[in-house]
């Protein structure tokens, strides 16, 4: 049996585990993510987050996607685990620093709202406004890494329904000639009525489907908008699951320091029973 909290950040949902005792190894967490995150068959979630000891920060965040793979970083997940760590007494202050595979994160948890100072993003090697095609779908994309790889595609209008973006997102995600490690894929529609507002939907690598929100995707979309001159340094990102607010600050000529603010809701305390893991 595994005790966990069910949480969501703008509809990006997770099973969050206190693993400070290291009772669960990486293989056990990967198996639990693959089995317990099945929707309708088990509990259902986009992935598992685990808080573990760190030698350099207050704790370490481990992220295991729904397919069992370990992810480097997740913005919405980072907000959730920050609130979880404070609520569960893993940290004593609601201001904290934690380690991820995608870099160190500073967080401030204030009730169900959490603000993250993400690791600086290098845009020196970003691919900006390149052209490509998959399955008859032509697009221009900007590619950069915000802890994890992201392709950002700006559209003038939504060309299909939310669910119908999944096959296109999957095909782009699997263009390993362009993205050797795969990529998350963000489809972005700038608001015509409000300056600095982006509507973003994301196909997430590891989840292998469209999700209601992606924090690093919101951040990558804001950075791409800045590089292309579409938006400025403060961006409101509207996801199907809620709103993420992104602030960007240049640190030198090719480094951007992002701040991400949004919701982190605690939904339920759950004991995962053995039958969910088979």
Automatic annotation (TrEMBL):
The record marks 150, 204 as: Could be important to modulate the pK values of the two catalytic cysteine residues. GO terms for biological process: lysine biosynthetic process via diaminopimelate. It holds the Pfam family DAP_epimerase. Substrate binds at residues 12, 65, 75-76, 184, 204-205, 215-216. It is found in: Cytoplasm. InterPro entries: DAP_epimerase_AS (IPR018510), DAP_epimerase_DapF (IPR001653). Pathway: Amino-acid biosynthesis; L-lysine biosynthesis via DAP pathway; DL-2,6-diaminopimelate from LL-2,6-diaminopimelate: step 1/1. GO terms for molecular function: diaminopimelate epimerase activity. It catalyses: (2S,6S)-2,6-diaminopimelate = meso-2,6-diaminopimelate. Catalyzes the stereoinversion of LL-2,6-diaminopimelate (L,L-DAP) to meso-diaminopimelate (meso-DAP), a precursor of L-lysine and an essential component of the bacterial peptidoglycan. GO terms for cellular component: cytosol. Its EC number is 5.1.1.7. It comes from the Bacteria. Keywords: Amino-acid biosynthesis, Cytoplasm, Isomerase, Lysine biosynthesis. Belongs to the diaminopimelate epimerase family. The keyword Transmembrane helix does not apply. Gene3D superfamilies: Diaminopimelate Epimerase, Chain A, domain 1 (3.10.310.10). It comes from Cloacibacillus evryensis. Homodimer. This is Diaminopimelate epimerase. The active site is at residues 74, 214.
């Amino acid at each position: 049996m595994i005790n966990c909290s069910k949480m969501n950040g703008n509809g990006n949902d997770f099973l969050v585990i206190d693993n400070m005792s290291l009772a669960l190894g990486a293989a056990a967490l990967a198996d639990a993510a693959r089995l317990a995150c099945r929707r309708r068959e088990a509990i259902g979630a986009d992935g598992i987050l685990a808080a573990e000891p760190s030698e350099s920060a207050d704790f370490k965040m481990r992220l295991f996607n729904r397919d069992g793979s370990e992810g480097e970083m997740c913005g919405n997940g980072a907000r959730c685990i920050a609130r979880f760590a404070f609520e569960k007494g893993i940290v004593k202050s609601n201001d904290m620093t934690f380690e991820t595979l995608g870099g160190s994160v500073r967080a401030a948890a204030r009730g169900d709202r959490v603000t993250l100072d993400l690791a600086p993003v290098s845009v020196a090697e970003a691919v900006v406004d390149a052209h490509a095609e998959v399955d008859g779908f032509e697009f221009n994309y900007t590619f950069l890494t915000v802890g994890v790889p992201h392709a950002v595609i700006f559209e003038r209008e939504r060309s299909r329904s939310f669910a119908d973006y999944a096959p296109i997102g999957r095909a782009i995600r699997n263009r390993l000639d362009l993205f050797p490690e795969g990529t998350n894929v963000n489809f972005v529609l700038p608001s015509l009525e409000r300056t600095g507002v982006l509507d973003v939907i994301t196909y997430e690598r590891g989840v292998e489907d469209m999700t209601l929100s992606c924090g690093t995707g919101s951040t990558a979309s804001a950075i791409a908008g800045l590089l292309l001159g579409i938006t400025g340094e403060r961006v409101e990102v509207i996801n199907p699951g809620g709103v993420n607010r992104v602030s960007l600050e240049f640190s030198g000529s090719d480094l951007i320091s992002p701040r991400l603010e949004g919701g982190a809701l605690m939904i339920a305390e759950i004991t995962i029973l053995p039958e969910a893991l088979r």
